[in-house]
C-alpha cells in the first residue's frame, strides 16, 4: 500500500504522476529528451542504461518497465537485456556501451566515484562527450525516478505482460502523452 493516497490502478511512477501532474510534466519531458531525443546512442541503449541503474537501485517497477522498453528496441531483445542486467561486462554488448554502463554504475553509487580513468576508457571505446553526458544524466535521473517510485511505496505489477504493454505504448508514443 502506498504511503499516500494515490489514484487507484496506476502502478509505479504513474500513480504519483497522476497525483501531481504539474511535477509529472517536467519529469516526463526529461525522460523524453534523455531516452528518445536525438542521440548517437540508440533508444534501446539508453533504455538499457535506465533499466540497469534501476536494477542496481532495486526499483522493480522501473527495472521491469525500462527493461521491456529496451528489449523492444534492441535487436537481441530480452536475451540481451537479461544478460546485461545479470552481467554488465557481457560480451553481448560492445566496449563503448560496457564502458558507459560502468560509468552509470558509478553514478548510481555516487557521482564522485566517476574518475578520469572511467571517462578515458569510455572515450577510448568511442564514446563522445554527449554520450558520456547523457549516460551520467540518465543514471542520475533514474536514481531520482527510482527513489520517487519506491519512496512512496507504489505498487508494481507482477505479470510481465503489463510491462510489455507499457513498453509498447512508450516506444510508440513516448513519455509526454498529454
Protein architecture, described:
The model has no long low-confidence stretch (mean pLDDT 97). The protein is globular. It is built from nine helices and no strands. The chain starts with 13 loop residues before the first helix and ends in a 5-residue tail after the last helix. Helix 2 packs antiparallel against helix 8 (129-151), helix 4 crosses helix 9 and helix 6 (95-109) runs antiparallel to helix 7. It has 178 residues and is mainly alpha-helical. The chain has one domain: AhpD-like (Up-down Bundle).
CATH superfamily: AhpD-like
So what's the overall shape? globular
Euclidean distance between termini CA atoms: 27 Å
CATH topology call: AhpD-like
Uncertain regions: pLDDT < 50 for 5+ in a row? none
- Could you state the order of secondary-structure elements as H and E? HHHHHHHHH
Largest sheet: none
Average pLDDT taken over every residue: 97
Q: Helical amount among residues, as a percent range?
A: 55-70%
- Number of continuous helical runs: 9
Query: How many β strands by DSSP?
Result: 0
The radius of gyration over CA amounts to 16 Å
Number of domains: 1
| Known CATH architecture | Up-down Bundle
Give the class-level CATH name.
Mainly Alpha
Which structural class is indicated by helix and strand composition? mainly alpha
- The portion of residues forming beta strands comes to under 5%
Main attributes of the structure:
single chain; 178 residues; mainly alpha; AhpD-like; globular
